[in-house]
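Homework help thread (please don't just give me the answer)

Our assignment gives two proteins as sequence + structure token strings and asks us to describe the second one. The first is just a warm-up. Here they are:
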Amino acid sequence: MVHSYGYKCGTRHLFAKKFRAHGMPNLSRKLQSYRVGDYVDIVADPAVRKGMPHKYYHGKTGIVWNVTPRGVGVIVNKKVATRTLRKRICVRTEHIRPSRCRETFLNKLKAYREYCAAKKAGKTEATSKAKVS
């Protein structure tokens, strides 16, 4: 028998759910609101067939550029040969989640602003920058 190369070929383990985590996603996954400019992680949920991204985009991080009632448009960088293309894909909300890639940066920014405010106020504690956890 010949090997088929369909749209979802080679995804037996990639789209498999964890132990005791089978079934449809929670309602909170659908009700999560996204805004243009948000960073999101694309994680395909095999329980939902509609709006599933191609297996290449599974695990990638992108930026929201379009929001519709049921789906979200995401810009993802895709390396093709020697160049990087900015691909725009449409994905249902069940297949994405908010990314934590900017958490550390935002914490550093908050700590720096607090440091600047303390320095401007003339507090002695502001001699060194606050440690970010």
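The one we have to describe:
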Amino acid sequence: MDPMLATGGSAIMALKELTARGLAVDQIIAVFLVGCPEGVANLQREFPDLKIVLAELDSHLNEKSYICPGLGDFGDRVLHRLSGPANILPCNVMIVPLLANESLS
């Protein structure tokens, strides 16, 4: 579980570590709250058989590689380093399979 799938770099590093330790890709389900097509494409290029689940697919990455529209800085929000209403995260999301070629059951 990773809150955001932007470029996919962190997820790819984690998945490489897991597979190097013997875990098969078909035993892994990568779960993200929000992502973008670029991150999904990078994960699929590195791990074509990986099951990917997103709560929300946003439109793109901006020039700073931030998900747009995104959630802002998720880490700051979770750790309450932002003030005001930005600390409130949406709770009305449902996890659904995205771009999976097979059932997640």
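TA reply:
I won't write it for you, but here's a hint about the kind of observation we're looking for: The radius of gyration is 14 Å.
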